[in-house]
Design goal:
- It is a single chain.
- With 194 residues, the protein is of the alpha+beta class.
- The protein is 20% helix and 32% strand.
- Strands 1, 2, 3, 4, 5, 6, 7, 8, 9 and 10 form a ten-stranded mixed sheet that branches.
- β2 and β3 form a beta hairpin.
- The longest helix is centred in the N-terminal third of the chain and has 8 residues.
- The termini are far apart.
């Protein structure tokens, strides 16, 4: 992963959830909640957090020839992070004192890492306290995400670590919207735009 230059600006939505509106019918994003890892003038990068694949970390470790004694770690689900670069793994995780080979700080408490060393540490039960492993990511070009938000394709809400790591997957879409007081299942297509 080659991180884009990090720019902090009030309009950027790093460390927020991107919640698909019920009217968003794109099969890549229908009823998804994504974690925005990077958003700046060049575009945006997010990881979908509620689309588990049939793969587990055990499958990934087997492909990468990484050994782990833990059956629990082997059973950890792997998510479909988005339609871009699905052959690459991305790990959203809690920040700790370890410096990984390829990481992008997202917030004071959350990091996105895409290097083998973190998977080896997880396999040895020496990884971050909490993590989510995904294949691929969702990406937007300059101004594209902003336009989609204006067009009512997405809601945004602050990231809640409990939703990111602990909430049962089928409840993440509703829970992300509920934290800003919205029952997403009750939303309908707006009457029109001016």
């Amino acid at each position: 992963m080659t991180p884009m230059m990090k720019t902090q600006h009030a309009q950027y939505l790093d460390n927020q959830f991107l919640i698909a509106m019920p009217t968003l019918e794109d099969s890549n994003f229908s009823r998804t909640v994504s974690y925005l890892c990077q958003h700046n003038a060049a575009g945006a990068l997010a990881i979908i957090i509620n689309r588990p694949t049939t793969m587990t970390l055990g499958n990934i470790f087997e492909q990468m020839q990484i050994e782990t004694p833990s059956q629990q770690i082997k059973q950890t689900p792997v998510f479909l992070g988005g339609p871009v670069q699905q052959e690459h793994g991305f790990i959203i995780h809690t920040k700790d004192d370890h410096v990984w080979d390829s990481s992008l700080p997202v917030s004071a408490t959350t990091v996105l890492t895409s290097s083998r060393d973190i998977l080896e540490a997880i396999a040895n039960n020496e990884g971050p306290d909490q993590y989510l492993v995904a294949l691929g990511y969702a990406g937007w070009g300059a101004g594209q995400l902003e336009q989609e938000i204006i067009n009512n394709a997405w809601l945004t809400s602050p990231c809640a670590p409990d939703i990111l790591y602990n909430t049962p997957v089928p409840q993440r879409w509703d829970s992300a919207a509920n934290q800003i007081g919205i029952d997403i299942t009750q939303l309908t297509t707006p009457a029109g735009h001016g």
